[in-house]
Task: inverse folding
């Protein structure tokens, strides 16, 4: 039960913020004459902001330290980026939610509160309903843009990108509702998903920088190439899983540093671009989320290896002490 509560709240703390920001970026990207589209995008923004607010209000001492320390939920730049983006876009952003989130404390291993079960279940069901609407809205927008029926300042690839992220969120919520857990997916599948997301971030950054920012454009292009090579190696199975994870982690740690420097530069007006400050912080948080996933998988693998070695040593000692003729490979222990 505690795991269900913790995983649900952690999932929404990250993804509900991401979804409300998607709606904000779409709202800001429409022409003034597209009043109906703006109203619908703003409606989704307000609905996900309300969901996010409600999740934050019940998350104190019910989520893990790992996610609070990962800088995937908020960074030191989030509030300044929200305030600057509100000034630039005219979209009202409730930064009090971010302030409350900053004050959250960990306690994910001690959340056996039966009263929270129905609360969390309602949150999951509410998120699922909102996601169905938001995904449909994004897909309709992409179709209309492809037929030149509506203009939005965001790339069509960015619309596809945020549809995939919304569908991942929906998939995770469905798993929580159906199984009260999140299934352990093939790590390669997770890496491929997020390497694709990171590659597209690099492409978006490259395309939104001012042409005068030659060095930053070159750096962004290099990251796009690195992630493309990782995806190609995965498709061709040219790399062992452990080595692939190591390369993905190393690249993403560097890319996170690049994004953080970019966020600071945009907030300080030192970088010429048309990148919204909150978009810069948004893609930084997604990189930090991916880093946590990779590091968690690495830590789990190390624990499994240690447990396996300990088990084999125990069995070998047992056989040496109690068997007349110890046999090679006699260990039948399972983790």
Result:
């Amino acid at each position: 039960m505690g795991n269900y509560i913790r995983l649900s709240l952690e999932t929404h703390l990250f993804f509900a913020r991401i979804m409300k920001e998607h709606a904000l970026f779409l709202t800001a990207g429409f022409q003034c004459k597209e009043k109906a589209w703006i109203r619908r995008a703003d409606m989704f923004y307000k609905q996900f902001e309300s969901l996010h607010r409600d999740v934050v209000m019940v998350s104190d001492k019910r989520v893990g330290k790992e996610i609070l320390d990962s800088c995937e939920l908020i960074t030191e730049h989030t509030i300044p980026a929200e305030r600057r983006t509100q000034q630039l876009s005219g979209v009202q952003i409730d930064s009090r939610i971010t302030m409350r989130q900053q004050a959250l404390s960990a306690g994910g291993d001690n959340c056996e509160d039966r009263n929270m079960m129905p609360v969390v279940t309602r949150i999951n069901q509410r998120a699922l309903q909102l996601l169905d609407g938001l995904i449909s809205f994004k897909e309709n927008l992409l179709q209309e843009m492809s037929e030149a029926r509506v203009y939005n300042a965001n790339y069509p690839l960015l619309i596809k990108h945020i549809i995939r992220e919304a569908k991942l969120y929906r998939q995770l919520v469905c798993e929580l509702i159906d199984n009260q857990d999140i299934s352990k997916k093939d790590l390669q599948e997770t890496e491929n998903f997020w390497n694709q997301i990171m590659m597209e971030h690099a492409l978006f950054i490259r395309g939104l920088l001012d042409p005068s920012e030659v060095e930053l454009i070159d750096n962004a292009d290099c990251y796009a190439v690195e992630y493309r090579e990782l995806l190609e190696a995965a498709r061709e199975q040219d790399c062992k899983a452990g080595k692939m994870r190591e390369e993905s982690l190393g690249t993403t740690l560097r890319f996170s540093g690049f994004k953080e420097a970019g966020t600071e530069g945009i907030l300080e007006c030192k970088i010429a671009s048309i990148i919204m400050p909150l978009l810069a912080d948004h893609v930084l948080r997604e990189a930090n989320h991916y880093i946590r996933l990779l590091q968690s998988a690495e830590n789990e693998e190390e624990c499994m290896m240690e447990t396996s070695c300990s088990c084999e040593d125990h069995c070998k000692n047992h056989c040496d002490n109690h068997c007349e003729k110890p046999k090679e490979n006699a260990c039948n222990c399972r983790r």
